[in-house]
Protein 1
Amino acid sequence: MNKKEYCEYVEKRAKKSPIVKNCACAFVIGGLICVIGELLRELYMSAGMEKTDASTLVSVTLVFITAVLTGIGIFDNIAKVAGAGTLVPITGFANAVASPAIDTKSEGYILGVGAKIFTIAGPVILYGTLSGAIYGVIYYICTLIWW
Amino acid sequence: MDIFLNCLYAFITGGILCVIAQILIDKTKLTPARILVLYVCAGVVLTAVGLYDYIVEFAGGGATVPLTGFGYAIAKGVEKAVAEKGLLGALTGGITATSGGITAAICFGYIASLIFSAKRKD
């Protein structure tokens, strides 16, 4: 078997990444998480909370649920099936905080947990805050021009 | 009936946002971390150009729960703070608006690390 034949053989045997199935799973599970979020939002607003406060509390609730599910090891199993379905909602962010925190416990609480907790949350906060600050400056200039 | 429709819109919008990310993961070399960063920045940009307000109005939780909603909260917070405090608001608004989510993630993540130990990965 020469190199080319081998490559063809590998290609034939390699599991095809089932993109349609992945997308369907991501759609359903991601959609369901958003429905849970929407139901919680309606619940909190019916309890008299403001829209933005209700949205924040929804995030907090979902973050809490994710931290617990990550801790008892269920979240990884859901994420394996859901792919982007659990990544894109705030659950992905929460998991990206809780998971390295738990995994790096053995490296100590300062440079282990304390540093690694931001492995993925760090970039998200950095670029979110940075783009927000840039937008703020642009927005400020716009208010000067038009008002 | 209203609540059913709201949930349907949230389901569809949230689902579509997840499918876009899934396609990006499967078809490009973007890692999950890059997707998260991309989504937050996209949320800020879409809010800045005035589009994301409509999506939130339409989809509710379907737009605020995904990470683009995090960017939306940052941009909205910045707008509000700039209107109140001027240029200083550009620095204070973003994190103020998202402090709840960030602090919750850090606190619950830390508590989880105290309670749980790493599972063996299969």
Protein 2
Amino acid sequence: MTVATLSLQGIACLRGGRLLFTGLDLDLAAGGCAQIAGPNGVGKSSLLRIVAGLLRPYAGTVRREGTVALTDELDALDRERTVRAALAFWARMDEAPPHAIDAALEDLGITHLAEIPVRMLSTGQRKRAALARTLAGGAPIWLLDEPANGLDAQAAATLGAIVERHQARGGIVLSASHTPLAWEQDVTLHLNASAYDIAEDDGAESTGGLAGTGSTSA
Amino acid sequence: MIGTLILRDLGRAFRSGGAWMPLAFLLLIAALFPFAVGPNATLLSQTGGGLLWIAALLASLMPIDRLIEPDRESGVIDQLVLRAHGEGTILLAKQVAHWLSFGPPLLIAALPAGALLRLEGDVLGTVMLGLLLGTPGLAALAILVAALTAGLRGSSALTGLLVLPLAVPILIFGAGALHFGGGSALKLVAACSLLLCVIAPIAGGAALRAGRE
């Protein structure tokens, strides 16, 4: 695994004419771990999608060393196939070794679900299957959107252990969650619900960089 | 990578049973048409070629709402883009998979359909050659429209409106080849087909990118 780094500089996010946050900075070295916290609709998921490269930031730059894996509310697993077959497709796309799937299923405690069709899974089981894709893919940078959603206490603790092991191997974990997570965070980014409508205020674009609604605490 | 994607899409098309629909559709039309216009062999052989073309065109459009939208909705497209696969590449793979899932079955179905419609051997040959050249273009068109309408509510009406004007040239030249003995008309089918095959991944990719913002 190459030495992974993730660096965000002055990120601003514009969604539907609303400036969600501006001037957001974050630096994570190998083994780093951060949580994006804040109420619903404040732009946590959008920030993860910007880091993943799925959304263009309104301003600022994202620099990544290493590949990313995203686990969000969309599991991207073929519903009519078995868990193992659905994960095998992604393992082939990730060029992961064949045994990576079995290892990931075992780590997440869902080996017994391997031959069950994805459509039969419960919310929490599906979440664990989606996490298994991230785990098996071997990407150093993990982006987890509400990773604890749908997981029971035991599964959340298991995920915590997996995340800590990933960090120990030099991986980076950036999670977005409105609730505290089961593992220690190096940095917590608090996004405030102070979004304003730039459509109504032409001056906002120029002053936006100074607003700095993202704050960090160690 | 792209091979894996094509195999997955192909597997999905056949497992869902959707891939057999165009084949059944073509045979159904060919079987019903003689009942509707009467068993007059001359009439059937004169109109049968054009009928096969219409059936093939409609058959290629049947699975349009299953081509892109389920993958967009379930996050598969996001995950592929995340792995640095461009939208154009993804759509090209889907285009190849879509053609493989309906093109060859349609060509096979054209043989019994031709017999049901009392087509002469050389007319059936021209129809099949035209379909071989034209169906890649129809597959590309289906992918393009599926990408343009992905994520829209009630897109099926829009789908028809978008597809028909773009599909008409292939239909005109393809059916025209039957009357003017192939040659130049088939070349024009191939030209239309090639144009759509090139445009679809580029324009559809741009539509998917815009839809994600």
Protein 3
Amino acid sequence: MKRTALYDTHLALGGRMVEFAGYELPVQYSGILEEHRAVRNAAGLFDVSHMGEFLFEGDGAEAALNMLLTNDIRGMTDGRVRYSLLPNENGGAVDDVLVYRMNARKFLVVVNGANVQKDAAHVGKYLSGCDFSDVSEEVCQIALQGPASQRIMEKLARDIPMKYYTFVERTEVAGIPVLLSRTGYTGEDGFELYAAVRDAEALYAAVYEAGKEFGLIPCGLGARDTLRLEAGMPLYGHELDEDIPVNEVGLDFAVKLGKEDFVGKQAILAHAPEYERVGVRVTGKGIVREHCDVYSDGVVVGRSTSGTHSPTLGCGIAMLRLKKGAEGELSADVRGRSVSVARTELPFVRRK
Amino acid sequence: MKQYTGTHEWVELRDGMAYVGISAHAAEELGEVVYVDLPETGAEVTAGEPCCELESVKAVAEVNSPASGRVGAVNDELADSPEKAGEEGVWIFAVADPVLADGLMSEAEYLATLG
């Protein structure tokens, strides 16, 4: 199992380590609920160095990348970030990614840690017309998330991206060279910082120190999951997968069927969506987690893809892969017990 | 005096009832409890078999009864304050006319198994 450059930092901070995406990472430090609330009310600091980073460079980079993605990256300006799916030939998702346009000849694509190898293989199969490199092993990533993030970053950096989904390619945070991105996976304002692996510990320590006066605490994978779920954000391997058509996952804003040909386009066009991604609150007792069958009038109409206790709402929440047009009262089979759930709009929790 | 199971429950006899909770180690492993599925008063329970569930944000844990008998009382406070189920010494349910499981350990013996 691999360790990130912050492994010793996690141990020193009392992190409880688990395996995730091939890495030993902290699931929590002080506790998931406390960490979750810190991000909703103040700030939290995450090690997300398991994420992968690919570079696409050359005159043909934009066109080559656009062939690989469901979203249309033409017309992006330098310093913009765009979410996309990386589709397979059958219209499923190899991964979901963030595309950073550095300039017309250079794009950074951030992929899920567990998918780095298969994504690279997939890219290798379809890419033509530009250079591709996987720089995941050279890059660390930390995420500063929460409403106090900007005030914390103002103490450390002069050149701060002001709009959500924008970034500054080369700047310094506490004197350390970083790519500073205003993005995140929590539903709150925040930043994701990409730096050289050798700078990881110093960067983490600087942000942690600067944030303490605002209530920042270190946060683990447990809080990352409850936060993204409340924010209604999909997680690869749960809401998205190779076998789930990309037009059944509620991400149509990132699937541009009007653009020129791309991998999987014909398969997506040929597939009439049968399922949709739906959010539900538990109205009965307990928690509906992933892989629970969902019933309506005694018939299975779907399955939960993620579910947890929402610390903000104080009840169970789940995302379902539900048959389109399913009507009536829904219930989930939780280890043989029927638990009532009610459809609700995504996201479950909106930014204050 | 509390006795412990290998599955991290404790049991304590008080006034003829066997009060049951989870060990500090189990509570630490599970994380904050956010929901308790209490057994019903009067339900039959069997030593070594699951009879209620504790859910934390990340996981669900079954509580095995350290005694056979029937449920004589449940700690209703946990319905509104489930996090207390993980606090030191807080009981979850109590078994009336209990027949304790074989192989229960003293606290020292239990702690030794944790290594």
